[in-house]
Design goal:
Length: 46
């Protein structure tokens, strides 16, 4: 979430293991120093 409260990323289901691995690699390359605020539907219920 950005400083202004706007969501700037969210998870998605990948079509294959290769697509998943490519997505992980992209995040590691392009957002290596980004802060992670992990939220899930399960976490929001508690």
């Amino acid at each position: 979430m950005a400083a202004n409260g706007q969501v700037i990323g969210r998870s998605e289901m990948d079509s294959s293991e290769c697509a998943r691995d490519n997505g992980i690699g992209s995040v590691r390359t392009n957002a290596a120093d980004a802060r992670l605020d992990a939220r899930s539907a399960d976490a929001l219920r508690t």
